[in-house]
Structure to design on (604 residues):
C-alpha cells in the first residue's frame, strides 16, 4: 500500500514568505529510507548584494538578514573587515560589543524558551496557549527578553537592526550612567533566569543522544560569544582564516542550502548551544555554572531536547556577563578606531545564538567589497538535523502521520533553525510504502 | 474612535525590504513621512511578535501595514481589518481568529503578526484600536522590486493608511 500526502502544519493569514522550510520523510515498512529537511537560506542573496559596496556597509546590510540575531551578523562582518585591514578591536570597545551581543543572546534565547520550546514539554500547542493558562510564567519570559532588548537599545540605538554599530567600534558610546541604569533590570532578570533554569530542568525529555562532532568557538577564560577561534569535540583547533579549509560546503539536490561537513570527515557536525556548552562549560561564570550543575547538565550535553536547559543556562551566563561588563565599563575616549582600507581578505567568526557565524570579505585598495562569503549556523547544522531526525523517526514509526509530524516539529524546534527570517511554516510530506 | 490629544498613535510597517512584495509595509511608512502629523510615530518592524506587542502596548491607536499571503484574493488586493472586531466568515486573511499558534512554527523566525495579536489579546496588551492594512502579495523572493500588482497598489494602500491616520488623529 502506498499513501502519500502533503500536509501544511502551520499556516497563518499574514505570511512573511511561505513554504521555505519543509521536511520530507520516506518510510518503507519499518525503515526510514530518506529524511530531507529543505531550508531556505538567505545569505546567498546578500553575498551578491554586498559586492561593490563600501567596506563600511556590510555590518548594516547583513544585519538585515536576520531580525532575531542582527548583532551576530554585524559582529562577524565587522571582525572580518577589521581583520582584512589589519585591525583588532580590543579594550572597552570590544567589551561593548560583547555586552551588546549578550543582549541579543538574552532576547533570542528567552523568546525561544518561552514561546517556542517550553510549550512542547508542557502539552501546549504554542506560546499563546501557555500564556493563556500560565500568564505569570510567560510574563517572566517577556521580562527576561526585555532585559536583553534594553541592552541592545542602549548600545545599539535600537533592538532591531542596531544602528549604532560600525566597523572600528560604534558611532557613539554610552556613558557609565547610561549602562548603570540597566543594572537593576539585569539583577532582576538574573533571578528570573535562574528560575527559568530550574523550571526547564524539570521537564521530561525524550531520549535522543546524537553523536555528531561538535564545533564551537573558544575564548579561553570566558564563555565564547563575540569572538574566538574554533575547536571541536574531535580535537580540531583552527582560526577563522582557516574556516573554509576546515568547513566544506557541498550542494545537495533537495535544498537551496549547502550542506556542511568538516574536512577529513564524511560525517555531520553540529554547532550551536549544545556545542558551545559541551566545549566551553568550564568557562561559564559562577552562577551559570552552579545553575547548570543543579540542573544536572554535567560537562556536556548531547540530547537536542535538553537544549532548552542549555539555552536557559546561557541566558544566566549572558546576564552575569552583562552585569560584569557594565561594572567594569569606562567610556572610551573615542567611539571607534579609524580603519584604513586595505586590499586584503579578512575572516570573522562569532557565536550567534544558533551557533558559529562565519563571514569573509575580500576588499580592494579603496575598500570596495570584491567578494563576500557568509556561512550561517543553520546551514552548517542542516545535515546534522537530518541525521538526528532519521534516528528519531526510526523509533517513532508506530505513530500516525499526524503524531509523527508533531514529534518531528518538536525535534526541529530543539535546534531553532534560522529557516529564514521570512518563513512562516513547515510543510511535511510523508511517503509510506 | 478618535485619539485624544496626547494619546499615542503609531503606524507600523511590517516586512523586509529585501523580500520584494514583503517590503510593502516599510514602503508605505516611507511614503507617509512628511505627510502625516509629526505626532504620529512611524515605525518599521520585522513582525517578531513580542517586539510588536511591546511596541504597540502603550499606543492608543496602532495601524499595522503588512503584506498578505494566502487566501483567494488577487495580487494587489487591499485588505483592511479592525481588531478586535469579529472576523465573520468572509475568510478575511487578516482575521485574528486564524490561530497562528494552532500549530506552532518550527522556529522562532516563524512567529508573526497573528501571534503578536493573539499574544497581546491574552496578555491584555492590545491598543484600544488596532487597524490592520494589508496588500495581497505574490512575489516574495529576494530583491527590492515589487511585483507589478503590488507596485500598482502601493499608492492606494498608502492613501488608505493615511486616511485612517488622519481620521484617528486628534484634531
Amino acid at each position: 500500500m502506498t499513501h502519500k500526502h502533503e500536509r501544511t502544519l502551520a499556516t497563518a493569514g499574514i505570511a512573511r514568505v511561505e513554504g521555505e522550510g519543509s521536511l520530507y520523510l520516506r518510510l518503507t515498512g519499518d525503515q526510514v529510507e530518506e529524511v530531507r529537511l529543505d531550508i531556505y537560506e538567505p545569505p546567498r542573496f546578500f553575498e551578491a548584494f554586498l559586492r561593490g559596496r563600501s567596506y563600511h556597509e556590510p555590518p548594516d546590510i547583513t544585519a538585515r538578514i536576520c531580525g532575531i540575531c542582527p548583532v551576530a551578523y554585524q559582529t562577524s562582518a565587522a571582525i572580518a573587515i577589521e581583520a582584512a585591514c589589519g585591525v583588532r578591536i580590543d579594550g572597552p570597545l570590544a567589551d561593548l560589543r560583547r555586552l551588546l551581543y549578550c543582549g541579543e543572546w538574552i532576547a533570542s534565547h528567552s523568546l525561544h524558551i518561552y514561546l517556542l520550546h517550553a510549550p512542547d514539554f508542557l502539552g501546549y500547542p504554542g506560546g499563546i496557549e501557555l500564556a493563556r493558562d500560565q500568564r505569570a510564567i510567560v510574563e517572566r519570559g517577556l521580562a527576561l527578553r526585555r532585559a536583553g532588548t534594553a541592552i541592545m537599545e542602549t548600545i545599539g540605538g535600537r533592538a532591531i537592526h542596531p544602528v549604532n554599530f560600525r566597523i572600528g567600534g560604534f558611532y557613539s558610546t554610552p556613558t557609565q550612567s547610561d549602562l548603570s541604569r540597566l543594572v537593576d533590570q539585569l539583577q532582576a532578570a538574573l533571578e528570573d533566569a535562574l528560575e527559568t533554569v530550574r523550571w526547564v530542568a524539570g521537564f521530561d525529555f525524550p531520549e535522543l543522544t546524537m553523536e555528531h562532532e561538535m564545533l564551537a568557538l573558544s575564548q579561553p577564560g570566558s564563555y565564547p560569544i563575540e569572538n574566538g577561534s574554533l575547536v571541536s569535540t574531535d580535537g580540531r583547533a583552527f582560526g577563522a582564516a582557516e574556516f573554509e579549509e576546515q568547513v566544506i560546503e557541498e550542494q545537495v539536490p533537495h535544498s537551496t542550502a549547502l550542506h556542511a561537513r568538516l574536512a577529513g570527515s564524511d560525517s555531520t557536525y553540529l554547532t550551536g548551544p549544545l556545542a558551545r556548552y559541551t566545549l566551553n562549560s568550564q568557562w561559564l561564570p559562577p552562577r551559570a555554572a552552579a545553575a547548570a550543575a543543579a540542573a544536572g547538565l554535567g560537562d556536556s550535553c548531547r540530547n537536542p531536547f535538553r537544549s532548552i536547559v542549555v539555552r536557559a543556562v546561557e541566558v544566566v551566563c549572558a546576564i552575569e556577563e552583562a552585569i560584569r561588563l557594565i561594572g567594569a565599563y569606562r567610556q572610551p575616549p573615542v567611539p571607534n578606531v579609524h580603519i584604513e582600507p586595505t586590499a586584503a581578505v579578512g575572516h570573522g567568526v562569532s557565536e550567534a545564538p544558533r551557533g558559529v557565524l562565519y563571514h569573509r570579505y575580500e576588499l580592494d585598495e579603496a575598500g570596495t567589497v570584491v567578494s563576500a562569503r557568509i556561512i550561517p549556523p543553520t546551514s552548517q547544522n542542516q545535515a546534522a538535523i537530518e541525521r538526528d531526525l532519521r534516528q528519531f523517526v526510526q523509533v517513532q514509526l508506530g505513530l500516525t502521520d499526524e503524531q509523527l509530524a508533531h514529534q518531528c516539529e518538536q525535534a526541529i524546534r530543539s535546534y531553532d533553525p534560522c529557516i529564514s527570517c521570512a518563513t512562516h511554516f513547515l510543510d511535511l510530506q510523508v511517503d509510506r510504502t | 474612535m478618535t485619539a485624544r490629544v496626547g494619546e499615542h498613535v503609531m503606524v507600523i510597517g511590517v516586512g523586509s525590504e529585501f523580500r520584494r512584495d514583503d517590503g510593502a509595509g516599510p514602503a508605505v511608512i516611507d511614503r507617509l513621512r512628511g505627510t502625516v502629523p509629526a505626532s504620529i510615530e512611524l515605525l518599521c518592524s520585522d513582525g517578531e511578535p513580542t517586539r510588536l506587542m511591546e511596541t504597540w502596548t502603550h499606543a492608543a491607536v496602532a495601524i499595522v501595514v503588512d503584506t498578505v499571503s494566502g487566501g483567494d484574493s488577487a495580487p494587489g488586493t487591499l485588505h483592511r481589518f479592525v481588531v478586535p472586531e469579529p472576523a465573520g466568515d468572509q475568510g478575511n486573511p487578516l482575521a485574528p481568529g486564524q490561530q497562528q499558534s494552532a500549530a506552532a512554527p518550527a522556529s522562532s523566525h516563524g512567529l508573526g503578526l497573528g501571534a503578536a495579536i493573539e499574544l497581546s489579546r491574552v496578555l491584555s496588551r492590545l491598543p484600544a484600536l488596532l487597524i490592520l492594512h494589508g496588500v495581497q502579495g505574490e512575489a516574495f523572493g529576494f530583491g527590492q522590486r515589487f511585483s507589478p500588482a503590488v507596485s500598482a497598489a502601493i499608492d492606494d494602500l498608502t492613501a488608505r493608511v493615511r486616511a485612517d491616520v488622519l481620521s484617528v488623529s486628534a484634531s
User: Anything to note?
Assistant: Residues 69 and 104 of chain A are 6 Å apart (CA to CA).
